[in-house]
């Protein structure tokens, strides 16, 4: 399996889902269909884990001058 194959399968699944919903006339009930809360929790846990890895070696002890922050933000 590859990322490309996964993307292709996902696009096909979404297309079939939308075709079925439109064909059944139940668009109002199923589009958009929010993901269950449990799936959102899995998503945010995975995002937090990824962010934690990226921030692991981030130098938290570095001090900035106010001028540096203002200049960086503009």
Sum up the structure in keywords.
4 helices; mainly alpha; single chain; 74 residues
Produce a short descriptive summary.
The protein is an all-alpha fold. It has helices spanning 3-24, 27-30, 37-55, 66-73. The chain contains 4 helices and no strands.
Question: Helices and strands in order, then pairings?
Answer:
Elements: H1 3-24, H2 27-30, H3 37-55, H4 66-73
Number of helical segments with 4 or more residues: 4
Q: What is the subunit arrangement here?
A: single chain
Which band does the percent of strand residues land in? under 5%
Gyration radius from CA atoms, angstroms: 21 Å
Number of domains: 1
Q: Give the low-confidence spans.
A: none
Number of strands: 0
Overall, the morphology is elongated
Q: How is this structure best described in words?
A:
72% of the residues lie in helices and 0% in strands. It is built from four helices and no strands. The protein is elongated and about 60 Å long. With 74 residues, it is mostly helical.
């Amino acid at each position: 399996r590859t990322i490309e194959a996964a993307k292709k399968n996902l696009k096909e699944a979404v297309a079939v889902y939308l075709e079925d919903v439109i064909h059944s006339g139940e668009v109002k009930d199923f589009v958009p269909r929010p993901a269950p809360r449990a799936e959102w929790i899995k998503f945010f846990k995975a995002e937090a884990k990824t962010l934690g890895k990226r921030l692991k070696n981030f130098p938290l002890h570095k001090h900035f001058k106010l001028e540096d922050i203002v200049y960086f933000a503009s």
